[in-house]
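Task 17 of the worksheet. Students: predict the tertiary structure of the chain below and write it out as structure tokens. Keep your answer in the requested format; marks are given for formatting as well as content.
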Amino acid sequence: MMDRRAFIAAVTGGLHAAALAAEAQQVGRSFRMGILGNLPLTDAEGKHLWGGFIEELRALGYVEGQNLTIDYRFSEERYERLPELAAELVRLRVDAIIVPADQNALAAKQATQTIPIVMAGGGDPIAAGVVASLARPGGNVTGLSIVAPEIAGKQLELLKEMVPRLSRVGVFWNPGNPSTVKALRQGEIAARSLRVQLQAVRVGRPDDFEQAFAAMKRQHVVALLVPADGLFLLHRSRIANLATRNGLPAMYGLTGYVEAGGLVVYAPSLYDSFRRAAVYVDRILKGARPADLPIEQPTKFEFVINVKTARALGLTIPPSLLQRADQVIE
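Model answer:
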């Protein structure tokens, strides 16, 4: 039986080879693509992520205004709008729909069972009911997941190295995003072995953030874990500021937070995932069936520390952690 690493390597190698071959080919017709996103292009992180996807498409021979038209639809944190936005893209008869998360994929799948759907950074598509399995997705959805089973445990381990007396950690979860619920469950398993208690903190709307931090203060939470979620990412500066103001060292699930003033991130490279999604799109536009393309799991992780935020929190980061970091923001 092929182990997980060998399986991922085989899939990655096959997709990479297909991408290299595609670069030498001319696209013979024009395509129309739909992006069903959450972070708009006016958001710096949204522009960065979707920019990487579009840049990779260009490298593969697809150029907006020449042989490619892209229709953009963004929920801007209002997940309840996703079904309506997905239906709009279906009515436009796009050749493929690209989505950044499970809830977007689910909305798109409910709108169409025929148009290919490519996840640029999904959570747990099996738990969300989007695909049957990672190896054989079935149906019209495939792409990439940024969820790794060991991620919550690794994040808590690193947080404990930074805060040796770590005892009670708040964990954000969004009821509109099943991936954050799974992150909470995985965190609880890891927390038991680390003798850390987790406190679930429900955040489903922008108005919930202030109340969430007030609740953590009452519950004597001493650190915070923020998993990957579009709502959280859109308000990353606000969350980072609130965490620092309340004296809470926080570990985040996406790299965009540290640039916004967050303390530390250990996470899969979402930018890399968005670029890889273009390779899936290319293969599908050249005739591959989504049902036959295995969903790729993360292999590249980023560990980034913001020492300026650490100083503001009165934390001294151990030299061993700074040496292991992929990037240290001064």
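Marker's comment: The CA atoms of residues 18 and 283 lie 7 Å apart. Residues 4-8, 17-27 have pLDDT under 50 and may be disordered.
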